[in-house]
Amino acid sequence: MNPVKFYSGENIPLELHKVRVVQKLHLVPIERRLDAIKEAGFNTFRLSTADVFLDMLTDSGTNAMSDNQIAAMFRADDAYAGSQSFARLQQAVEEVLGKKYLLPVHQGRAAENIICRRYVKPGHVVPMNYHFTTSLAHILENGGRAAELLRDEALELKSENPFKGNMDIDKLVKCIEENGVENIPFIRMEASTNLIGGQPFSIANLMDVRRVADKYGLMLVLDASLLGENAYLVKQREAEWKENSMADIIKMMTGLADLVYFSARKLSSSRGGGICTNRLELFKEMEALIPLYEGFLTYGGISVREIEAMAVGLYETLDETMISQSPSFIAYLVREMEKRGIPVVTPPGVLGAHVDAMKFCSHIPQTEYPAGALAAAFYLISGIRGMERGTVSSVRDENGVEILADVELLRLAVPRRVFTLSQIKYVIDRMQWLYDNRELIGGLRFTYEPPVLRFFMGGLEPTSDWPAKLVDKFRRDFGDSL
Ligand SMILES: *Cc1c(COP(=O)(O)O)cnc(C)c1O
């Protein structure tokens, strides 16, 4: 998987870039971290980076930009309308994603807002491989619901299935037949399905989905936020595409979709987002919503500097040595944790490593949020901020009953080209210590629960004094170490 082999035979991911701008990090003592996580309501979203050592919360808007991206930001053409920066972005979208018409939006979920407002009506069902938090929220907001059609084995966390993000074609046909074509606004495919461990789909599967879409006259929408890494893993794992360039693979995937949308906070390592298509009628149907919700059609709520960075970042997505960085560091992190018996999602995917909290904290009932508890405990003992992807990130049904998540994961995001190998080794070391002391971790309960996307700002508290016990054990084992 790594582009460079070591003489020693060790499988080490090698940084193929050098660091030219640095930011000081703060590794505060565990006693301060205990106060910080209490102040944050045991929700890692609410921590200040002043108290965070390695920020592995997300890969969204936290990726390192290249020298060429930064340089491009200086030539940004500040104009409300007709900015040349936007023309450069349009050209990049056409050359890299193969789509002529572009609607700019301020981030990925804004694209979801526009698409769902336009196409999702009450009673509608959106078949998809798997949901993402914001995509589901926008479908629900417009009165629709999601039908998740992964193959059953995709939720087996430990596996060597190379394409867990594939859609089950039989389930798709059944879903369409049962709900009726008229109740299906579009089929949604998400590249590198975020919530189940950043797992890709194959091109063969996307082609099958396209055939079904054609048969029933349905639109196919591709969430391309994690497209670059999905393309990279296709090249690694799908034999038919081994010899093709990233450019060919990316165009093949986007070419199968009627509408492509993305968060540029991930794809292109910048900020912003877009919706693109080659079908003029679809572009026209959504066009009027952009000035209403985002901004004029040549900036869409994005700063022109970021538009320039996005254009350059899109071209850089075609560079395999660039795009391989995050997946190869993730593969190292996952395989090293696996060797130590720590339960992790395999095969390694994109955007981060995912620890199986249901196995790690098998003594914590799912109603006490094992993934949330693990995220808080890991921050406490390491200063590393991960993200809960489990029941805290889920919702309640119309009767207020928890919908328990399919999987309880602690996601440790690996932003693109940000961390060094010794920092990754620290992650592994502290995770091993926590695994060996896992019985000290206890559950959480909500003290403040917002009605929508509660995981962002929700507040929780421990169900016992387990955090203090972890601090005691840490001090006994590490002395006065940070
Ligand atoms: C991050 C993400 C989004 C939302 O994008 P934002 O820029 O964070 O609004 C949508 N879909 C997927 C798959 C994502 O990973």
Automatic annotation (TrEMBL):
Q: What Pfam family does this protein match (any one)?
A: Beta_elim_lyase
Modified positions (N6-(pyridoxal phosphate)lysine) are 266
Question: Which GO biological process entries does UniProt record here?
Answer: aromatic amino acid metabolic process
Gene Ontology molecular functions: tyrosine phenol-lyase activity
What cofactor requirement does the entry state? pyridoxal 5'-phosphate
Q: What is the enzyme's class at the highest EC level?
A: lyase
* Residue ranges annotated for the Aromatic amino acid beta-eliminating lyase/threonine aldolase domain, each copy included: 55-427
Kindly state which keywords UniProt assigns to this record, in alphabetical order.
Answer: Lyase, Pyridoxal phosphate
* Enzyme Commission designation: 4.1.99.2
The record's family statement is: Belongs to the beta-eliminating lyase family.
Supply the name of the protein: Tyrosine phenol-lyase
- State the species of origin: Rikenella microfusus
The opening ranks of the lineage are:
Bacteria, Pseudomonadati, Bacteroidota, Bacteroidia, Bacteroidales
Please name the gene that encodes this protein: tpl_2
